[in-house]
Amino acid sequence: MSLLTPAIGLIFWMLVVFLLLVWILRAFAWKPIINGLNDREREIQGALDLAEQTKAEMAKLKADNANMVAEANAARDKIIREAKEASERMVQEAKDKAIAEGQKMIDSARETIHNEQQAAISKMKEEVATLSLQIAEKVLHRELQDKTAQEKLIADLASSARLN
Amino acid sequence: MLFMSTPIRRFLSYVFVAALLISSPLRSFAQADHDSVAEEVNAAEHELEHRLEENEEDFNIGEMIMHHIADSHEWEFAHGVVLPLPVILYSPDRGLEVFMSSKFHNNDHEYQGYHLIHGDSEEIVPADESRTVYDLSITKNVASMLLSAIILVLIFGSVASAYNNRKGKAPRGFQSAMEVLILFIRDEVVKPNIGPNYQKYLPYMLTLFFFILVNNLLGLLPGAANVTGNIAITMTLAVITFLIVHFNSNKHYWMHLVKPTGVPLALLPIMIPVEIVGVFMKPFSLMIRLFANMTAGHIILLSLFGLIFIFKSIFVAPVVSAFALFMNFIEIMVAFIQAFIFTLLSAMYIGSAIEDNHEADHGM
Question: I want to staple B209 with a disulfide (CB 3.0 to 4.6 A). Which of A74, A124, B16, B343 is the partner?
Answer without folding.
Answer: B343
